[in-house]
Specification:
Length: 560
């Protein structure tokens, strides 16, 4: 399949990859037709999805079956008046229908807006009005449907709400004729009429960022964004046609299409889905053992909980390859996972605005804690505040060279929808500015420092939160931590650590453990970085996509 879209399909080194990665771009690329329907024609009996849930229900769907289902779903949506360019919000958790709906909407060239099931009425109104949402397709979850119904009076553009039934319940009041039921109505849809083709520059997908520091931004991607993830699945995840790949991600945020959709199917792999209500490391490991998952990707938080299990109790012999992204990987987690499984985690970095931007590829030796090297589809650099390039060892902002919308690399977003000012703030002087800080070593590997707003200036030193967090994470008491700066009359700011302790350490929380952790950091990294303040908490504040909200910790401290 990938030979249809790449001039060279295998690479042996970073030099080979950088020099020879070249895409073949169709005039009207549409992932649903050009990749998925092509697989259905080429290998109709090949398994596309293996879906199961925490109640033991199992569903196996071939590429051929998936084409038939997505044609039918597209026809159903056509019958509801959904067509090219119409914004449609999906709130479907990990229900099987999310994959069907995504492909069906691609076939219609509609604009997909994935969203999490944890949104409140306020969140839904914000999204509906900012994006002029025309239809919402959601799970039959009482909380979800209640919040949608409460949002409707303030959402004048919404015309249809389609509920996917699965044994849940519908709550709330809906105007007459607005509420529809997927499974009760889809079989009666007329034949699918393929619409006029999309242009590559048309908007295909819009994500609201997870909002680590403010209101969510609306990130618009064109139809070539899907092609940009070919590198994610084929080269970073190292997938092949025999792979059974599991990425842990909610379908409401961008990591889902990184690991549960585009790149995996470019490779012809099988997407494994474990639909569960609440994360539990033991249950996840049992599923990996039962179905013999070969490839696994999750944020470091998931790995942190996994390595606290006795991994010798699980048969993970089918596991071939593991990757991680979503937040920076602490070296201590890398080393512990390697010790317990023999597998080296391959880290990657990207944003809602990009596909994988930096990564540790199969032909590279991973350096624990490093994000790897630039993906060849992007021209990545580090720059200082004055706009000049950083030398090796200097800290700077990660930027991607991109002159304008007509001269941007495949995978980079189009714009912040309906916000020209915000787009200009991030995309100027020939660069897209990520807002993330890093440094590059003499071998070309990039090392994460933190968001620009998270860097702490104390007594003349610039301290990246990640380096202190990594030092703390090597102590056996620490499950998770967040480093922030607290205003100080003498030093300007001092370092604070907000720490989640392991179960066996919780009753030891106190002054003695604080001193022990402080001395531990002094031994692990430069002493001036140690946290002068340590607070023990049961959990860290996080975004709906699981990223730590340091801004919330800082704001709380300002009020005290």
């Amino acid at each position: 399949m990938i030979e249809r879209f790449l001039k060279q399909t295998t690479f042996t080194s970073n030099e080979d990859y950088r020099e020879h990665l070249e895409f073949i771009i169709p005039e009207h690329f549409n992932f649903a037709y050009d990749v998925m329907d092509a697989w259905a024609e080429e290998a109709p009996e090949k398994l596309a999805i293996l879906w199961t849930n925490d109640e033991g229900v199992e569903r196996r769907t071939t590429y051929g079956q998936l084409k038939a289902e997505t044609d039918q779903a597209a026809a159903y949506m056509q019958s509801l008046g959904i067509g090219k360019g119409d914004p449609v919000m999906l709130i479907l958790k990990r229900r099987y229908e999310w994959w069907v709906a995504m492909l069906a909407l691609h076939k219609l060239a509609a604009v997909i807006i994935p969203a999490t099931h944890m949104l409140t009425k306020h969140d839904i109104v914000y999204r509906n009005t900012r994006a002029s949402v025309k239809a919402i397709i959601c799970v039959d979850d009482a909380y979800v449907t209640q919040q949608i119904s409460l949002a409707l009076p303030e959402s004048p553009t919404v015309e249809k709400v389609v509920v996917v039934e699965g044994g849940g319940s519908v709550s709330g009041s809906f105007p007459a004729g607005m509420l529809h039921h997927w499974h009760a109505e889809i079989a009666n849809a007329p034949a699918f009429q393929r619409p006029e083709p999309n242009d590559n520059s048309d908007t295909m997908l819009m994500y609201f960022t997870s909002g680590t520091s403010g209101e969510p931004k609306m990130v618009a991607h064109d139809f070539l964004y899907a092609m940009g993830h070919l590198s994610t699945g084929v080269f970073w995840h190292n997938l092949h046609e025999g792979s059974l790949h599991l990425t842990v991600a909610d379908t409401g945020w961008g990591k889902a299409v990184w690991g549960k959709f585009y790149g995996q199917w470019f490779a012809g792999a099988t997407v494994f889905v474990y639909d569960h209500e609440k994360f539990d490391a033991d249950s996840l490991l049992r599923q990996m053992e039962k179905y013999r998952v070969t490839s696994f990707c999750a944020p470091p938080t998931i790995y942190r909980f996994m390595i606290r299990e006795d991994l010798s109790r699980y048969d993970l012999s089918a596991l071939e390859y593991c990757t991680t992204a979503g937040e920076a990987l602490n070296p201590a987690v890398f080393e512990k996972f390697l010790e317990k499984t023999g597998i080296r985690m391959m880290e990657g970095f990207g944003q809602t605005e990009t596909t994988m931007t930096l990564g540790t590829f199969p032909w590279m030796t991973p350096k624990p804690g490093s994000m790897g090297m630039p993906n060849a589809q992007y021209d990545v650099d580090l720059i200082k505040p004055d706009g000049t390039p950083c030398e090796d060892g200097e800290k700077g902002e990660i930027v991607i060279k991109a002159k304008d919308l007509d001269n941007k690399p495949i995978g980079l977003f189009k714009e912040y929808y309906r916000d020209a000012e915000l787009t200009r703030e991030a995309w100027h002087d020939g660069y897209y500015h990520t807002g993330d800080m890093a440094w590059r070593d003499e071998d070309g590997y990039y090392w994460f420092e933190g968001r620009i707003d998270d860097v702490i200036k104390s007594s003349g030193y610039r301290i990246g939160p990640f380096e202190v967090e990594s030092a703390l994470m090597t102590h056996p008491a620490v499950v998770e931590c967040a480093i922030t700066g607290v205003p100080d009359d003498v030093r300007g700011m001092v370092v604070k650590a907000t720490v989640v302790l392991g179960r066996e350490w919780k009753d030891k929380a106190g002054d003695a453990l604080i001193k022990e952790l402080q001395q531990h950091v002094k031994r692990e990294t430069a002493p001036y970085k140690y946290p002068r303040i340590i607070e023990f908490v049961d959990e860290l504040p996080k975004t709906i996509s699981g990223k730590i909200r340091r801004v919330e910790i800082r704001n709380k401290d300002k009020k005290q």
